[in-house]
Every structure is written in C-alpha cells, then in structure tokens.
Amino acid sequence: MSDLLSTNKSGWLGTSDEDRGAIYDFSRAYMDFITSSKTERLIVEHAEQIAREHGFRHIDEYGELHAGDKVLFNNRGKNLYLAVIGSKNIEEGLNIIGAHADSPRLDLKPQPLYQDGDFAFFNTHYYGGIKKYQWTTIPLAIHGVIVRADGETIQVHIGDDDNDPVFVISDLLPHLGRKQAQEKLTDAIKGEKLDVMVGNIPADDSDKQAIKENVMRILNNKYGITEDDFTSAELELVPAFKARSAGFDESLVAAYGQDDKVCVYASLRAMLEIENPERTAVCLFSDKEEIGSMGNTGMESHVFDTFISDLLNKLNVNRPNLLDKVFCNSRMLSADVDAGVDPLYAEVNDMTNSGLVGHGISLNKYTGSGGKYNASDANAEYVGFIKRLFRDNGVKYQFSELGKVDEGGGGTIAYILANKGVDVIDCGVPVISMHSPYEITSKFDIYEAYKGYRAFFRS
Ligand code: MN
Ligand code: MN
Fold first, then answer.
1. Which of 5, 267, 341, 455 could disulfide-pair with 393, CB 3.0 to 4.6 Å?
2. In the chain, where are the structural domains located?
C-alpha cells in the first residue's frame, strides 16, 4: 500500500521474542501492583513507598532544591505528586503526566450497619459511573479507614487475603425474577439494593437487632470500634478479584480498577527512570476524577498549584505571576484510559476513530459529549509535537474518540490543567468493559504507554 494512506495494524505484529519478554515482565509487575492497590489510599501509599526506594524525598525534607533532586508530596493520603527537578530554567515549563488513583466502587454510607430479617447489611452509596447489575453476586473486599472516638485511625483491609471472608450483594433468582427481567437495565437493580450481607448469626434471642449486635461485637473485638465510629470512616467495597492474565495467548490483563491504575503504574514506572532531565518532570496521581475532580484531593483543588509554588520557592526563583507563566509554558499528558473497541458492541464506535486493543497507546484530542461540550481540545501544534515525539521513540500510538458522535461521552482531568494554560492531550490505554468489576486491557498497550510516558518525561 502507498505511504499516502494511514494504517493501523496490531502492535503485536512487529514484536520480537525479546520485546514480548519485556512486555510480559512489565505486566506481571503491574498485575502485582494493582492486586494490592485497589483504592486511591493504597495506590498513594504504595506509590510513595516505591518512589522513596528510588530516591524521592518529601519536599519538607529539602531546604532548597537543585537540578536532579527528586521530590514528593502526599496530599492527605489520597493524592500524590512527584517531581524531578530539571537542569533548564523552570520558567520554560514542566513536563507533567497526570493519572487518577480513584476507580468506580461502592462506598459505605455514614451509618451503614442495619438488620433486615435474618441478615445484617452494610448500606452503600455507589461512587462513579457504574452499571449496578455488575456489582451483585461477586466477591467484594473492604478497604479504608475508621477514625475512632479516641482519635486513632484504624486501617481496615478485609477480603483480599485468601484467608479472609468476602462480602456479597445478592440478586434475585431467575426462577422468581420474571418481573425484574422486564425492567430496563438501569432500573432492574436499584442503588438502594446495592447493600452487602455482613452477618447472619444473632447474638442472643432478644430482639430484631441481635444479628446487627453480633456483627458489632465482632467489629468491636477486632477494631475497638462502636457503631458511632462509622460516621467518621471512609470504607470502600471493591471486587476481591486478583489481576490475572486473560486469553490462551495471555495477551490481556483482566483486573479491577485499570481505569486509571494502568496509567498510574505506567507513568510511575516511567518517572522512576528519570535522572537529571532538562525540563522538570512532574508525575501526579489525583483523586475524585470519577466524581468530577472536586474536593481538596481532586484535581480542581489548588493543592497542586501550591506544590509547584513550593518548588519555585525552594529553587529561589519565585516572583509574582511566575506560577502562571510556568503553567503557560508547560506540557501535559493526561494519562487516562480510553474506551477500547469491543467487537461485540462495535456499533457504538466510529471504527476509523476508535482505540483498538493491542494497537498501542490511544491519543484523544478531545473528550466531552454532545458537540464536544466541556471538552479540552488539544491544539494541532501540540498534537503534532506529541506525534513526532512518539514516532522518534518507536512508540506505537493511535487516535480515537470516545464513541460515535452523540453516542455518549466522558470526562478527564485534561481541561483543569488546560485552563491554567498548559498544553494537554489525553493519552492512555484502551480498556474493554470500562468501569466494570473486571476490566480488560492489552499487555502490548500497557507497555507502549510506559514507553510513551518515559519519552515524554525526557523530551
Ligand atoms: Mn479515567
Ligand atoms: Mn473512569
């Protein structure tokens, strides 16, 4: 075929045995990481640990900063910033990669424990855009914190160890589910029915609260908590599945929370390899992306600006408006996953503008919905720069839109940094069954994301 026309072949075609070895090794480490890091708190805790092992130190541990220094800032245990100071004047801008550490899940309500019939339940409120029916009849684990009346913060991690019990949300048996089956998919499982069973043994034969009482006794023995302590807790129900290779060729990763932990891991690994860059490299993992990036751990908060201001202070270069200027000269990859084409549901995609699984990292010039509404649309000049960068570094990339026009849409953190003046494009791994309890990605694409992010930090 002539060079005039674009082609988009499977990335696996060009790989040697050695390439495949590197791709599979990378994914093995990735799967270990996400199996043990299913919530934003665990991601931030483990990423900070790994960063410290690679020479990153908290910004408060530095009196002043110099080229080559590796800096970290942990925002309330749910949001992490990493930076490697460049040799060029920081006024020339930063190379930022931002992914998000939170994923769709079920949060416990402030007063979650109740008894109905012969069961004790935890009442939940779902977090992010889920298809509710997918969260019934699967094993769930609980992770999070409880702040007790005495001020102590208790860590809760139960359901992911093979010796732990798991938690399950029930669903109606098909034999008696005829009426339910007639309902719309969105209505068949109501949000208020996403309550998880937590006990069945009564403490005594006293009253209707005896099963709840027994659960509370167990929790009191284990964590020293009373029912009131739940109101100062953040407890998240997540699938108790391990990340696994999928397919006879083991080409795929099946795991919970790949949106957006796949980009967290790929950008973290890229960041760890950056030594003495020219432009200051910044890697950030934000929280609350799935519910609109609000709050003081979300990307909309000013904590990130404060971190960058602190870099300027400790470099002894700060002056009025310098932060704005730094942002205006900065470049960013918004490292977030893309909707991969699922051939079983191909009708929602424009096939010449869609992310194909196994074809490399996906670039989304814009997201938004309904006429690009609310989209950050990357400038053509910047897109051209990223294309040249990836081509020069042998990174396989493709361009996509999130579905056909008017089919739906989605958000990212891209617009938040773009509004500060940063050149931003969305750039991540295509995912199948996004926001489900068990999402699918290609090991090839994960590796290309890592290569792409590494090249970007070095640019
Ligand atoms: Mn995402
Ligand atoms: Mn998402």
1. 455
2. 17-103+256-458, 105-239
Ligand 1 center to 242 CA (angstroms): 20
DSSP state of 372: T
Kindly give the distance from the C-alpha atom of residue 236 to the centroid of ligand 2, in angstroms, as a whole number: 16
The SS3 call for residue 335 is coil
Cα of 194 from ligand 1 centre, angstroms? 23
Distance 69 CA to ligand 2 centre (A): 33
What's the half-sphere exposure (Cβ side, CA atoms, 13 Å) at 311? 32
State the distance from the centre of ligand 2 to the C-alpha of 4, rounded, in angstroms: 36
- pTM of the prediction? 0.97
Beta strands in 305-449 (DSSP E): 331-334, 338-339, 361-364, 368-369, 397-399, 409-410, 423-428, 430-431, 439-442
Backbone angles phi, psi at 393, to 5 degrees: -105, 15
Low-confidence ranges of the chain (pLDDT < 70): 1
Q: Which of 3.40.50.10490, 1.10.3720.10, 2.30.250.10, 1.10.8.10 would CATH assign to domain 105-239?
A: 2.30.250.10
C-beta separation of 328 from 421 below 8 A: yes
Residues 6+ apart with CB under 8 A from 114: 120, 121, 123, 212
Closest ligand (CA of 434): 2
CATH hierarchy code of domain 17-103+256-458: 3.40.630.10
Residues β-bridged to residue 80: 74, 285
**What is the whole-number distance in angstroms between the Cα of residue 435 and the centre of ligand 2?**
6
Ligand that lies nearest to the alpha carbon of residue 335, given by its number in the listed order: 1
Separation of 103 CA from ligand 2 center, angstroms?
6
**In 278-431, at which residue ranges do the beta strands (DSSP E only) sit?**
280-286, 331-334, 338-339, 361-364, 368-369, 397-399, 409-410, 423-428, 430-431
Please give the pLDDT value at position 403: 87
Radius of gyration of the chain (CA): 23
pLDDT tens digit string along 140-198? 999 999 999 999 999 999 999 999 999 999 999 999 999 999 999 999 999 999 999 99
- Measured in angstroms, how far is the CA atom of residue 260 from the centroid of ligand 1? 5
Q: How far is the CA of 310 from the centre of ligand 2 (A)?
A: 30
- Say how many Å lie between the CA of residue 102 and the centre of ligand 2: 8
Give the number of the ligand closest to the Cα of residue 426: 1
Q: H or E element: which one contains 262?
A: helix 258-272
**pLDDT at position 406:** 84
Tokens read off for 160: 């992911």
In the reported structure, the alpha carbon of residue 260 is separated from the centroid of ligand 2 by a whole-number distance in angstroms of 7
Q: What per-residue confidence (pLDDT) applies to 206?
A: 83
Q: Rounded to the nearest 5°, which phi and psi values hold at 151? A: 95, -10
